[in-house]
Queue: 2 jobs
Job 1
Amino acid sequence: MSLPEQGLDASAIASRLADLRADDPPVHGGRVLAYVYDAGMPEATNAALDALAGFGEVNALDPTTFPSVARLENDLVGWGLDMMRAAADAVGLVSSGGTESCILAVLAARERWAAAHPDGRPVLVMADTVHSAFHKAAHLLGFDVRTIPVDRASFCLTGESVRRALDELGGRAALVVASAPSYAHGVVDDVPGIAAAALEHGILCHVDSCIGGVTLAYARLNGEAVPPMDFTVPGVSSISLDLHKYGFAPKGVSLLLFADAAYRMGTYFAFSAWPGYPVVNTTLQSTKSAGPMAAAWAMAQALGDSGYRTAVRDARAATLRIVAAIDQIPGIGVVARPDTTLIAIAAGPDRSVDPFRLADAMRARGWSLQPQPSCADLPRTLHLTVQPVSLATVGQFTADLAAAADEVRDMPWIDASQDLEGAFANLPDLTSGNGLPDEMAGVHALIDALPPEVRDPALLAIFSTLFTARR
Ligand SMILES: Cc1ncc(COP(=O)(O)O)c(C=O)c1O
């Protein structure tokens, strides 16, 4: 960017920014079924966006200078503890997002483990379907990882398999993670069995409910039978719950809740042996905007309990209608019955529909579903984050899904494994500024075909072409 010699006025800036957004998909309306969460309540969204702007310049680094920061954080944590039915002495913190909450949960476990084990590397025990945030945490914080396959019929991590792994690991395991639910398949793990195994071995158990916390809490209040996953389950020591997902807040806000205040202390950092101001950080960031937490607070106030109950009821109703429709479409099926509002679509046993081709055919009809490549024996799938607003579009969506499946049924699967070099050579130019091409099946098939050890380096190489800025 070269700066204009004379600064632009507000309307010129708004129009330039609108141009920059021109190729982005819409964040409202339910056509994009990943990354975005639309409660379908525009007045509440506007209240949240006003709060985001109003608090954007408040520095949440220092709640002694800006007391509003502690008030907002305490209110949000209190709400989260209530949703997760914590005991009176439970505590929490607000972070910038799910990944930061997961990393902080792992950090807290490392501090506790290291106090008792001065030597050696701790082990993080988790399902092969766990969110990648925990692999990132292990990478950053010096953990070895023990991944356990989920049950291949239910896609659930069982307590029994965790118990066996903990028996084998002896004292090396520091933390076990259960998902509620898993992002990829939308299944809540066997939290009671996993937490019981952790208790028996004297280690911590984190429940990753980043994406499901709000929906599970309000589905329960709506009278649905939800799988046990909160602090009423003995042995659950921490829970992550994102407000920028089904809390419907703008991006940048998540909760990390702890059954025990001593455990939270492991995430805090203080340093005063330098000549500047004494630093006390409750998260990875230091200077940070109070905007996202003010926005989450505003959203919660604008929706109220009844707003969340309605939002979750609508999203669940839409989810169940979509599943019922998928059950009727030949060649595809759901990987598992959704425990919340996430659906994974896979090919049926006859493999007549390639999920990646289906994604392109849906894209041509104006819907964005998220391709998930195969992983060891887990098949390629399409992920759907179903939202409250989806209830209004469910008829059109399911009609389009049936038509898209008809269009691609019996077409050969896109398979790049025979000609990886050719597939690389045909990659679209992601730097062209024209957005993604209409047909992405080839790109996903290439990722799918790459051997595991080259997948991540290849993804990094492709991604880095997007960031080309030079002086
Ligand atoms: C279960 C789960 N954990 C962690 C995360 C990471 O959250 P974020 O993308 O906010 O960092 C996600 C994101 O979808 C998730 O679904």
Job 2
Amino acid sequence: MEEAADRHVWAVDVLGVGPSERLLEVGCGHGVALSLVAERLDGGSVTGVDRSAKMIEAAGRRNAEHVAAGRVELVRGSFERVPLGLHRFDTLYAFHVAAFWRQPEPMLAAARRALAPGGRLLLFNQLPGWGQISDVSQFAAEVTAILTRHGFETDEPITADLPSAPAVCVRARP
Ligand SMILES: C[S@@+](CC[C@H](N)C(=O)[O-])C[C@H]1O[C@@H](n2cnc3c(N)ncnc32)[C@H](O)[C@@H]1O
């Protein structure tokens, strides 16, 4: 089972999860961040979406207790196409899901549909090739520009010089 890396722990700290919050993680992979989020919930829930059946299975194994308790829900499918029913989320987050900046049109349209009024979008990234905090700042500026072009209001990005590599969180609201 994949261990929580420093980037997962940092990201979930940045999320500042409220106990009754409704969250959506896009591209949840093995479900490592989902577990860390679920541990902070009391009445809230987190839904993990991933297009890979293998990843959804792994996330299910890792989060079996949380799924049984109704804190974690898992959905397999491409975020931009998957039906999420009537669910609306207070927080939508993703770690290292390049579709958000490579195919922003469908991804950000889907984010708008999924967010409740007043909801927030947090896009995290960390690339092994990033040696310096300045590499992160350039990435953050590019993603901020994409979000602005698609009508999102952005806050100042949050960066962290993690032991594994620098990381960033770009925050936005529709
Ligand atoms: C680089 S991995 C990161 C996994 C996890 N977020 C982490 O940081 O450990 C990207 C994940 O996003 C998923 N993914 C990429 N594009 C997606 C999309 N459009 N909809 C749903 N899942 C997607 C992939 O299947 C993969 O599991």
